[in-house]
Each structure stands twice: as structure tokens, then as C-alpha cells.
Amino acid sequence: MDPSLPTSQALAARAARHIPGSTSRSTLHTPPLAPYALRGRGHLLEDVDGNELIDLHANYSSLVHGHAFPPVLAATAGALAEGSCFGLPTVAEIELAEHLASRLPALPRWRFTSSGTEAVMAALRVARAHTRRNLVIRFAASYHGTSDALLQPHAPGVPPAAQADVLTLPLADPHALRAALASRGDELAAILLDLMPNRPGLRPLDPDFAALARSLASEHAALLILDEVITFRLSTAGLHALYGIQPDLITLGKIIGGGLPCGALAGTPEAMAALEPSAPPQRAVHLAGTFAANPLTMRAGLAALRALDAPAIARIDALGERLRAGLLDLGFQVTGRGSLLKLHHPRLPQLWWRLYRQGLLVAADGLCSISTVMDDTLIEDILERFARARTA
Ligand code: PMP
Asked: In what order do the strands lie in the sheet with 223-227?
């Protein structure tokens, strides 16, 4: 530990004077304080207190290649010096759209945003303009970012009017979905679905329910929006490809920015027509963002995605399955699929600190992910640390 550096405790006290909660992200709350990061390299993160941690958090799974991934560094090297953003589009945006469209041939139209939140907000706007209807169905506890409309019902600070056209149904309940559509199907603009939502437990949804959502959306001339901000990493085309269902719109974020702020929405030409300049004025959707599609994010994202091909995905999925099996053997409760895992524990905040003291960083809500810089030996090391944290 470098004695010239302030400790996390000192930084938290300093932050508390100006930053409510000591960090801008409510999701990083780990009472009594959030340790402060110093730097990261590969699968390792160093905090300001001199601890070295194996990073299973990976900024909520967005760093699929770990920290300071050399291809991302190479792709962005010098880019800052050439200008980080412009009031004109750049070729980097086209290249990322071309790459993503080659992975998702049924969704050839792309727009980029600066966060997953904005991508989902834009998808709702596009769906509503396309259908000229307002009702959106979402599912309880599924997280879609921090927009007023999609925070949980009655969230403090959100006026009821902001959620008036959002119907929250119990997750994976076919009867509730059928009943809602029987009474309000002709108002429906879109069903918004995450096939493996993190907050309700990171359990893959029943494929029959996903197929039902798909067919009911079509039956009612509404759109199916799949939120794959977390799950896109599970195949070259995302989790929906493994389910064999096709959305009208998809929202992405996290890994597609290579570690820089990002979001994207994509869709069929019909669904995305509202974003074409030729759209009739009453349907033309406004979507912009000063930093959307900035060349740094686009270059970093393309480098990250190029390195995440099918063999790389198969490898991290296998490591994830190995870790999940090992954790279950140790008596931990763990869910997820492939390289995404979630720990369940009645006293998660306490477990979080016990893991931290063993040199393991997981998300405060128990989300863990595998990155391509990990290997079998590291998984064994991680399991040994979990075993020690269990008894600590
Ligand atoms: N959708 C899902 C499924 C998410 O997990 C998240 C973020 N965790 C978002 C949307 C919002 O993304 P962002 O934090 O980039 O705004």
C-alpha cells in the first residue's frame, strides 16, 4: 500500500461532503462504505487501500475482456488526440453498426446511445410511434435502467403520470399476460422483456413464456422489445438466438462499448422506420445525444466485439459453468447461465465483505461474470477463496 494515497475511508468521508451516498451510482452501495478503485489490468482490480481483487464484477458485466484489454487500447490509442467527439458522424459508427448487423441479420437497422437506459427509452418511443399506441407491458422486478417510466411502480420521485401507460405484470405468468392482452390488447405498443432478468434472480425464462410473449405481441400488432443489455454476451447474437425467438427491437449496452459508455437499439426496417428522415412528421421519432456514437466508444466496442467470437463465448461459458458447479458444491446458492452468474444469500451485504476480504469483487446484488482473460486455474483459485469466505 502506498502511504501517500488516501484510503477508501478518507475518500468516502471526503466524497460524502459533496456526493450524496459518496458515489454517483446507487448500485455501488456497499455499507458501511464503497471501497475506491485505483486501477485495473486483466482480471485484476486494485483498490486505493492496496488490495488486489479478482474482478468478477467487471463493472456489472460490461468488461467481458477484463480491464485495459490490449485490442481496445490499440483501437483507441491516439483517438483522444484526434478528437473525442465531433458534430459530424464518423466511419467508426458505421463499422460498429455493420459488425452488429452481421451478428443479427434480422435486425439490420442500428442507432447508438450513451447508455442502456437511453437505448430502452428510445425503443419505447420508436415502438409507440410505430404502432401509434401507448401501452407498454413490462415485468415485475426486471430492471431496464433509470428512466421514470421503467423504474419500479411508485418509485419515489416518479410522478404516477410517467408510468400511466406502463403495465407491470408478474414475471413469466402466462395467465396474467393473456388476461392483460384480452382486456387491453388494442392499446398495446410493445412488450418489453428481458429473457434472464438480473434483479428477479438471473434465472433464464421459460422458453414457452418467451414464445408466448412473441406470439401475443404479433397477434395484437404490437412490437416485442428484448432488453439484452446484460444477456447479449451469451451468444454472438445474444440470448434470444439461443431461444430461437425474433424480436422487433433489441436494446444493448455494457459489452458493446468495450468499457466505454454505450447503448444501442436495433430493429427490423419496419420497426425502425420511425427513425428514418423520410418518416411522416407525425411518426418521426427524435433521438439524439451529444456523445452518442462518439468515435472512442465505437472503436472500443468494435475491438471488444471482434474478440468475442463464438469460440471465446464457448470458453467463458464453460468457465462460468465450472464456477457455478463449484459454488453449488460448496453450498452457495447460485443461478445464471454461461458466463453470467448470480449469488443468492440471505445476508448478501455481509457475504460481499467476506468475499472482498478474500480478494474477490462481486456486484453488490450478487451478479458475477467471467471475462475472456480468466482460465481454469483462476476459477480454482476463485473457488478456494469462496470456500474461505464461507467459513470466515
Ligand atoms: N437494461 C438492463 C437489462 C440492464 O441490466 C441495465 C443496467 N444494468 C440497463 C438496461 C441500463 O443500462 P445503463 O446502466 O447503461 O443505463
From this structure: 109-113, 263-267, 249-252, 223-227, 188-193, 135-139, 166-169
Q: How far is the CA of 116 from the centre of ligand 1 (A)?
A: 5
CATH class for the domain made up of 86-307: alpha beta
Give me the residue label for grid cell 467470437.
Answer: 309
State the catalytic residue, choosing from 36, 55, 60, 143: 143
Look-up of cell digits 407491470: 168
User: Which grid coordinates belong to 76?
Assistant: 483507441
Q: Which among 192, 230, 252 is the best mutation to test ligand 1's pocket, defined by most ligand atoms within 8 Å of the CB?
A: 230
Distance CA 85, CA 105 (A): 29
> What SS3 string covers 68-89?
CCHHHHHHHCCHHHHCCCCCCC
Task: Output the residue whose Cα is nearest ligand 1's atom 13.
Answer: 116
What per-residue confidence (pLDDT) applies to 1? 63
342 is known as an active-site residue: no
pLDDT digits (tens, 9 = 90+) for 314-342: 999 999 999 999 999 999 999 999 999 99
Contact between residue 271 and residue 279 where contact means Cβ atoms under 8 Å apart:
no
Count of positions (residues) in the chain? 392
Active site residue 243: no
- How do the domains of the chain map onto residue ranges? 86-307
For the question of residue 227 being annotated catalytic, the response is yes
Ranges of the chain whose pLDDT falls below 50? none
